[in-house]
From TrEMBL, chains A, B:
This is Homeobox domain-containing protein. Signal peptide: none annotated. Residues 32-97 bind DNA. It comes from Arabis nemorensis. The chain holds residues 1 to 219 of 283 of the full protein. Belongs to the WUS homeobox family. GO terms for cellular component: nucleus.
Amino acid sequence: MEPPQHHHHHQADQESGNNNNKSGSGGYTCRQTSTRWTPTTEQIRILKDLYYNNGVRSPTADQIQKISARLRQYGKIEGKNVFYWFQNHKARERQKKRFNGTTMATTPTSSSPNSRPASVNVKLDQEHHLLHHNKSYPSFNNGNLNHANSGSECGAVNASNGYMSSHVYGSMEQDCSMSYNNIGGGGWSNMDHNHHYSAPAYNFFDRPKPLFGLEGHQE
Amino acid sequence: MEPPQHHHHHQADQESGNNNNKSGSGGYTCRQTSTRWTPTTEQIRILKDLYYNNGVRSPTADQIQKISARLRQYGKIEGKNVFYWFQNHKARERQKKRFNGTTMATTPTSSSPNSRPASVNVKLDQEHHLLHHNKSYPSFNNGNLNHANSGSECGAVNASNGYMSSHVYGSMEQDCSMSYNNIGGGGWSNMDHNHHYSAPAYNFFDRPKPLFGLEGHQE
DNA sequence: ACGATATGAATGAATG
DNA sequence: CATTCATTCATATCGT
C-alpha cells in the first residue's frame, strides 16, 4: 500500500513531537479518546524505513518492543500498533499485488516496475469479493531473513518476492446449507452432526494436513 | 486491557437452529458466504467462560466435542472452531504480553476464577459487540445440554493456575454469569503511558551484525 | 457534509 | 506453541 515515497494524504507534517491528540474538542490530556492509534509522520517514516530499507516484515516480539520504544519518542504507541502495522502493511502490499493480473484490468497508472505502487487507483472490490480459495502456499522462503545488511539504502529492497498466487477459486458458492468448508476433505468438518459419533474421535486434532499427529496434552 | 471504548466487529448471528437458505433449487447463494465461522455472542461468552472461569486452555478432543456440541445450540460450529478458538485465544494472550514486555502491573489480586474482579466496571465489551437482534446474552438456560455424553466433563477445572483438566465433575452447570473479564490482565494497551523514554533511540534490535541501518531519513 | 479510500484492529484459519 | 496469512470490521482522512 503505502509506497516508500510520500504522496497525497498525509495527516499533517508535524515532524516534531507528537501530534496524536486530535480530539479537537477539549483535548483531554490523559484520556486518549482516540479510538485508534494514529501514527505520526515520523513514526510512519521510521516504520517504512524498517520495512523497505531493512526488510523488516514480521518483526519478532523482541523487535516490536524495541521498535515501539523507539517510536514512542514521537508519540504514543504500543507494541500492538507496531505489530499490526507490519502485518497490515505486508498484507496489503501483497493483496494489491495480487490483484495485478487477475480479474482486474484497471491499471491506468501502468504499474511502473521500479516504482512504488502508488496507491492504486483501481478500486478494489473489497466490497464483495468473496471466495478466495487460495491456499497454496509455496514453500518459498519468506524473505524475512533478518538480513541486517541488505540493501541498507534507499530504493525498494527486494522485499517482495514472487508469491505466485494463481487465484484459483473454485467458484463454489456453497449454499449455506449445513456443511461448511470442507477443506482438504476429511478432517474437521464432521458435518454429520445429526449422527452420533460414538467414537471418542480423538482425531479431533487431526488437522487437514497431518503435521503433528495429535496432542492430548495441555500446556 | 483493551482500550476503553471500542465498538467493533460485525454483526453476524447465525440462526441458532437453522440458518439455511432455500436449500436445493436455485441454490441462491445466501449472503454471508463467509467461509469461516462467525461465533455468536453466546458462543463467545461460553468460550470465554470456559477459558477464564474454568481455565480451559487447550481442551482435549473430548472436551472439544462436548464444547462444540453445546455451542451448537447457538449456531453452527464445528470442533475445529473450538480448537482454533482456544489456540488463538491463548496464543494471543501470550503474544500481547510479549509485545508489551510483561510489564503489566495491572494485576492487583485477580486469580479468582469464580469471581469477577469488582474493579472492572460494567464494561463488558471486551470484544465482540454485536448489535443485532440477537444480542441478548442474559440468562440463557445453560442447563439444557443435549449432549450425547452423560459424562459431561466439559472442562470445568480449577482455573486459578493449574488446571487439571482431565477429569469429570458433575455438569458444569455453573451459572454462566458474565465473568470472562481479563483476569490475566494481559492486554495490548495500557502498559505505560509515560512517553518519556528519552533514551537510546538508536538501539533497535540487537543487531547480530554491527551493520544495522541508520534510519535517519527516507527520502 | 458525504462518499470513497486508506488503514488500524481483530480474529479465524493454517502452517512450521 | 509461535508465527503468519487472509478476511473483515471500524474508523480516520481526504476528495469533491
